[in-house]
């Protein structure tokens, strides 16, 4: 009976976090349109969900994020949307690559953040230390995995879309990681710490109340 209640609470919590992901993904706060790519804050609830509910929840929330990204890039395409939408990829292999970049890489955000949080807590780090590390690494996982996958899988198409030589792609990828990914990760560290501390206390109170 107790396990059933825990499972129900877990599913409800995941559903609520997924609703936040979907809400952010469909507002300017979640998907910020830039000239070349869409910057995102949608990974924040994915990381927080992974911390509060575990790596499996993080993977589910990351998958929801990825599907929202796929839909956004299909409905409102940008220069690089072929890398995120299988419907714009041109062939089956390109579609599979786009699915990996848009959905697979986002699932990894939740998996990495969830297991990193567990590892840091086992190392006896306080939440004040573990939260910003998890936020930073979780966010950077998104940027590095997405941009790294574009480089490995779609370097030729990326060069063509940007109108540059193939040997310039690595420099452009690193510029994106440095100029966009690192500030995004720093912001995630701050937001995950601020929100995570409050939510961790709330979840502990809820768990204590459920045991009474």
Describe this structure in words.
Helices cover 78% and strands 3% of the residues. It is mostly helical and 212 residues long. The protein has a two-stranded antiparallel sheet with strand order 1-2. Helix 1 (2-25) runs parallel beside helix 3, helix 2 (43-53) packs antiparallel against helix 5 (127-162) and helix 5 (127-162) packs antiparallel against helix 6. The chain is globular, with a radius of gyration of 18 Å. The mean pLDDT is 89.
The best one-word shape is globular
- Total strands: 2
Secondary-structure element pattern, one letter each: HEEHHHHH
Average the pLDDT over all residues and give the rounded result: 89
Task: Write a brief caption for the model.
This protein has six helices and two strands, in the order αββααααα. Helix 1 runs antiparallel to helix 2, helix 2 packs across helix 6 and helix 4 runs antiparallel to helix 5.
List keywords for this structure.
212 residues; mainly alpha; two-stranded antiparallel sheet; 6 helices
What's the arrangement of secondary structure elements?
Blueprint: H1 2-25, E1 31-33, E2 38-40, H2 43-53, H3 55-75, H4 92-122, H5 127-162, H6 169-211
Antiparallel strand pairs: 1-2
């Amino acid at each position: 009976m107790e396990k059933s209640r825990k499972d129900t609470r877990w599913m409800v919590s995941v559903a609520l976090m997924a609703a936040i992901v979907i809400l952010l993904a469909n507002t300017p706060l979640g998907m910020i349109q830039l000239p070349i790519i869409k910057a995102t804050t949608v990974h924040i609830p994915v990381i927080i969900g992974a911390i509060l509910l575990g790596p499996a929840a993080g993977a589910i929330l990351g998958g929801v994020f990825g599907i929202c990204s796929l839909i956004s890039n299909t409905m409102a395409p940008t220069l690089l949307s072929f890398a995120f939408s299988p419907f714009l990829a041109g062939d089956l292999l390109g579609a599979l690559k786009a699915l990996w970049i848009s959905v697979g890489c986002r699932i990894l955000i939740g998996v990495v953040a969830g297991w990193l949080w567990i590892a840091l807590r086992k190392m006896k780090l306080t939440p004040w230390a573990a939260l910003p590390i998890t936020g930073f690494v979780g966010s950077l996982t998104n940027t590095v995995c997405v941009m790294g996958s574009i480089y490995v899988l779609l370097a030729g198409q990326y060069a063509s879309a940007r109108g540059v030589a193939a040997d310039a792609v690595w420099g452009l990828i690193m510029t994106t990681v440095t100029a966009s990914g690192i500030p995004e990760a720093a912001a995630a560290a701050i937001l995950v710490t601020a929100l995570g501390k409050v939510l961790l206390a709330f979840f502990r109170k809820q768990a204590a109340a459920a045991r009474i």
